[in-house]
Amino acid sequence: TEFTALTLDMSDAGAAIFAHTGQFEGNLTINTPAANNASQGLTINRPSAGTHYHSVEFATNGTVDWSIGQNSNDAFEVYENGSASTTRFSIAEGGNATFSGTIGSGAITSTGIVKALRFDMNPDFAATNQYLVLSKMQGNDGGILLKSKPTGGSGQNDWQILNHSTTGDLRFYAYGLTG
Hints:
By secondary structure, this protein is an all-beta fold. 0% of the residues lie in helices and 31% in strands. The strands form three sheets. The protein has a five-stranded antiparallel beta sheet with strand order 3-4-5-6-7, with no helix packed on it. A three-stranded antiparallel beta sheet has the order 8-9-10, with no helix packed on it. The protein starts with 5 loop residues before the first strand and ends in a 5-residue tail after the last strand.
């Protein structure tokens, strides 16, 4: 039985077409042209959006430890153990990012809105001074809003702790109070 595993198509500037799975023993290097254009690197192409997964997998002795790819939701994701059920980081189309896990040390910088169920500062009660810092320009208010939402209702402001814009005074506001 004859099988063509590699085709060199000289009509397409020497493009090589592999007709089967390839395995390389050793290092693989891809040299790109000295230009700044799209499609000059490694492309992993799936047949259609929203229905197929494609990735680069990192394995140890044949077992996938981590994978980086695009899932059926069209998000770019990092998976642990090669499984969508252990997604650790996701960037959806449009740029919204989701992180699953705990960040041990270091800083996170965001230029957008950060949403979280809870912020736990100094959970191990380290014997150091701890501060929640809200920075603002003079002439602008800065502070904390405490909100609530009744069952079946909509969210509402209850309290505001405010560093006043022009006086610098610390003020407390109770919303909904009359008198």
